[in-house]
Amino acid sequence: MTRPGFSRSLSFPWHLPLALALAFPFLVLFVRGLPHFPSTGRDLDVILFSLVLAGLGTLLTLFLALNLAVLGRAGRVAGGWEALLLLGYLVPPFVTGMGLLFSLGTLGVRIQGVPGILLAWTLHYAPLAYLLLKPQVGLALGLLTTARVHGATGLRALRAFLPPLFPPLLVVGGTLYLALLGNFGVPAVLGLPERVYVLPTLAYARLLSPVAQDPLGEAAALGLWLALLALPAVLLTQNPLLEAKEPLLPPSRPLYRLLFALYSVAALALVLLGLLREALQNPYTGRWDPAFAQALGLPLVQKGLRNSLLLALVATGLLLLLGLALRPFPRLSKGIRGVLDIHYLLPGTLLGVGLILLLAPTPLYGTPWLLLLAYLLHFAALALRALEGGPGVEGAVLAGRVHGLSPGRAWWRLGYPLLLPYLYAGALLIFPLAFAEITLSALLYAPGAETVGVAVLSALNGGLYREASALGLILMGVAALALLGRPR
Amino acid sequence: MIRLEDLTKRFPQGGGVEGVDLEILEGEVFVLLGASGSGKTTLLNLVAGLLAPDRGRILLAGREVTHLPPERRELGYVFQDQGLWPHLTALDHLLLVMPRPDRREALALLERVGLLDHSHKRPHQLSGGQRQRVALARALARRPRLLLLDEPYSALDPVLREELRLEVRTLLKERGTTALHVTHDPEEAMLLADRVGVMSQGRLLQVGAPKEVYLRPNSLESFLAFGRANVFHIEGEVLAFRQEWVRPGGSLEALVLERRELRGEVLCRVQLEWGEAWVRLEAGVGERVRIQIHPLLRFPQGLPDPAMAAGV
């Protein structure tokens, strides 16, 4: 039974002015970037290159994830092996890039530049695409089984399998394209040393450039390009994925499970071994010499860890409180989330440049508060989405109210307790992402308030590869802890 | 006890209820009978305050509650899916909704519904029938002015359903609880109701004692709501009778085409002069028997579609 909602309160569309206020950084970016739009010929090359690279990366990642989803679903993979695969996604993308750099470097393979970026993106984002595609692939496999039961084989059976997958592939492809287009960390680690630029790194370089005539305006124009390239995919990702019910699946195939497990181990090992070797072995003596103490002894790292921990904790806490406060008002919450989704989906560079333009004249600029505000805006959609879960919560509260509980008491005794697993999941999702965030941090950190992401990037730029690897391992550890603590 | 005046709710996608007038008396068990989509649950949700009406009034014990939020209507509600709170024990369900939580009273109520030994269990530790009993005890725990029951037995197996619905009727009468119960099961309506109302397409078609509505429906839709229907469209009018209204002897000739036995009764598919019908009759296949039908109802030709009637 579905119980209708009872919402006579909050009939004023509060979400409209709030949404407008939240979208203000983008509006400022638009106004400031327009005079510099379109950009120079060299910028246009980078724009086209970013588009092609993100498109190619999306196709590669989709291909890998689709295969993993078939292996995972048909092999009935669950639990530990999936967690292992997911660990690759919870680790910050630039750590994946660093791990690959050192692993393959040991084998004498240089992966800086385009091949490295594509490889790092594919390995890093395949688990995300796998998670999104897995239920849809399960549904399609169910259709395939049904077709086979009714005697269809070969191409005729594939006609039952492939067409239902096209819409989800488009939606997931859109999500991937957005993530790759806006990714800063991987191109910063693997592209900048080879002078390979994509839009986020070019905007960053332009902001820091001593020769640019109007660094903010030029960075804003690049941000506009980024928004322009991202917009079609944002619209594409608004189509919800189908809720797949438990389909009729063919018998489990142990070989598929084995292949899935082998990939999960290999992908993780490829990242992990490079970092371990770099962090634990002295390259000159070849002896066991862990670099954790040196890394943690660096003043920038100490500051970075402290600031990241504080920022991530405060941002996670505030966002979950906001999510809880908004949860009883679904219209208001969804309205606000509609705008915040854009903040999360669009590349962080856009938000970063927008906030600089908006708040540079205020005392907030150059303080850690600016970074906190950026984190709040960037990750808020995740918190609201996490707490939108719990299909039975609304019904439980209504049942309480019908039996005489006031709205506040019904939420306190019934709604919020049922939301606890979602609260927990939200915290475990937001905290590691905020802790290891790099795009916004690199643009907005205040002197003395660097984050751990900035510290790793500085260590890499300063040639402190062993210390950077040790920090990468620490970030992997944080991700692994979050994964171990996930609600089951 | 409760009066509905011209209660109307329309949904953009269609459906709802239209101009319902109804009065339910103190201590009465009133059953709303109708097919899926007839507007029964919408009416219940309007009374509960889960939906706001477009028009009309709801008066509970003489007080208008039309625009009061659900928590101020002093109701109990047994939902179709039970709507239990997964993190609370059976006992906590009762204590939470009692205006003055009284552990002894709550345990006594749980004992009355046969759940004293399960008071510490959470919903997932209980069977379907036990969960429905918790839902009922919760609804009664706050001593509601009106108890709403939305097809509470539909998810239960037939044996448990029969057992539980009789128990519930006894319990309601014992406590003098006024109840508005919706169902699509005519047997349930006959068994439980002091009075029954037939709903179709959002309208309340007929209200009366179950036997009266069963024997003297005021419309073809009302007739069809009780099922076991034979309907013939003949020369501008509709002839209708129920399977059990057939007796041997009489002027009508029937050729038995098929015979089926169902829980102690024999049902035959027979050829009549108007067409084929299923009737309760003791006869063998191929036999020609003379029968009488009483009552044989006649309605004006028109709605509903014969195909719909055949499906009943």
General description of the model:
The complex is a heterodimer of chains A (488) and B (312). Chain A has helices spanning 15-22, 24-33, 41-74, 80-90, 93-106, 114-149, 154-161, 166-182, 185-191, 199-208, 215-236, 254-280, 292-297, 299-326, 330-345, 348-359, 368-388, 391-402, 407-435, 439-444, 452-461, 465-484. Chain A is mostly helical and 488 residues long. Chain A has a single domain, classed as MetI-like fold (Orthogonal Bundle). With 312 residues, chain B is of the alpha+beta class. In chain B, the strands form four sheets. Chain B has a six-stranded mixed β-sheet, sandwiched between helices. Chain B has a four-stranded antiparallel β-sheet with strand order 2-1-4-5, covered by helices on one side. In chain B, strand 9 (195-200) and strand 10 form a beta hairpin. Residues 304-312 of chain B have low confidence and may be disordered.
Ends distance of chain A? 26 Å
Number of strands of chain A: 0
- Given the C-alpha coordinates, what overall shape of chain B results? globular
Low-confidence stretches of chain A: 1-10
The rounded Rg of chain A comes to 23 Å
CATH topology of chain A: MetI-like fold
What topology emerges from the helices and strands here?
The complex is a heterodimer of chains A (488) and B (312).
Chain A lengths: L14 H8 L1 H10 L7 H34 L5 H11 L2 H14 L7 H36 L4 H8 L4 H17 L2 H7 L7 H10 L6 H22 L17 H27 L11 H6 L1 H28 L3 H16 L2 H12 L8 H21 L2 H12 L4 H29 L3 H6 L7 H10 L3 H20 L4
Helix pairs in contact in A: 1-15, 2-11, 2-16, 3-6, 3-8, 3-12, 4-6, 4-12, 4-22, 5-6, 5-9, 5-12, 6-7, 6-8, 6-9, 8-11, 10-11, 11-16, 12-22, 14-17, 14-19, 14-21, 15-17, 16-17, 17-19, 18-19, 19-22, 21-22
Chain B lengths: L1 E9 L5 E9 L4 E5 L6 H9 L6 E6 L2 E2 L10 E4 L11 H8 L5 H10 L15 H14 L4 E5 L7 H18 L3 E5 L2 H7 L2 E6 L2 E6 L1 H6 L4 H6 L3 E6 L2 E6 L3 E17 L2 E8 L2 E6 L7 E6 L3 E4 L5 H6 L1
Helix pairs in contact in B: 2-3, 2-4, 3-4
